[in-house]
Design goal:
It is a single chain. This protein is mostly helical and 81 residues long. It has one domain. 42% of the residues lie in helices and 0% in strands. The longest helix has 15 residues. The chain is elongated.
């Protein structure tokens, strides 16, 4: 695909889409609020990108700190939606 604008920053792409500059390809979790509110439209619902794994990497210890465990649990919940 060719165009006048390119970016590898999803925050910038979201801003570009919201200003009406063009079509962007974003993770659904990133644009869900804007699609639900009607500010953006999902124009290719039959097309989806690759599902890539996301890993949380932290030092192995006998006892994992509670803040690390809570963050990993938060990621699991948000990314499974």
């Amino acid at each position: 695909m060719k165009g006048n604008f390119q970016s590898d920053n999803n925050d910038v792409l979201l801003d570009v889409a919201l200003t009406g500059v063009g079509i962007v390809f974003l993770p659904i979790w990133m644009a869900k609020e804007q699609v639900t509110s009607g500010r953006l439209r999902h124009i290719m619902p039959m097309y989806s990108g690759q599902n890539l794994p996301i890993n949380a990497i932290y030092p192995q210890r006998r006892y994992t700190p509670l803040k690390v465990r809570c963050f990993v649990d938060f990621l699991k919940q948000k990314l499974s939606e």
